[in-house]
Amino acid sequence: MIKKATCMLFLFLSTFPVISGAQTLTITGENSSETIARNQFLLSPADESFVDLNKVQELVNRLNKQVYKHPVNATLNERREIVPEKAGAALDQEAFVKQFYAFFYGKKSASITLPMKEVHPRVNSELLAEISSKEIGRFTTYFSKRNKERSYNILLAAKAINNHIVFPGEKFSFNKVVGERTEKKGYKRAPVIIKGEMAEDIGGGICQVSSTLFNAVNLEGIEIVERYSHSRKVPYVPPGKDATVSWWGPDFVFKNEYDHPIIIRAASYDGKMIIRVLSSESAKIRRSGK
Asked: How many CA atoms lie less than 13 Å away from 227 in the CB half-sphere?
């Protein structure tokens, strides 16, 4: 963007006369409204010929942050119906920079409406329909519904990974996708294993989600990148088939080696933790060198 802006600068130098004065630019947008002064963007107060490109980029970044709308991927609801995607929006930076330079090298104050462009989601309804057509992995574990706190933590973590899509060659990190387990997010204190001993901590129980996920994706076409076992046996998976996680410690990471995206479907209800892994009917394992 800065290099493009530099080229534009010299183009406008040959087109517009340089003038002094307190010209202002009023900028309006859906979530943005402000007025800036031309002299705020001078490279040097002693020379009004050149713009400070760093300040222009800072302005562009700030405005884009104010108006940016994240696109929403298409998802599957509880009845496996497709919920359509929603496009997002972002500042059209190239168009805005052109307007800014027209103001900077112009003769008077001006006002503009921020130019916007559509941001497309990575997953639309058509792609989702394709990659949800075939089940390639599944695993179920069980837990006691009587422990309300632990059950709720499992539910929160299951919701966090549900409908997550891993594209070919991408890695899935449990900690990154689920995020830090905090009381603010709703996680509760429940039993955890610390150095081989039972204790209580925020988010206790989510290792059942990561362990269920490990067993669901532990198949040909999925590379297990990072996995750690608990320091003692856990009751919900066979020995050696668990995956312990901690925000400040172990993570569970795997890589999609298929030539199509995979989608994780996770649900927790009635004492069951169920994870299904879906992809396309035509999904094949990518071979090295291809």
From this structure: 20
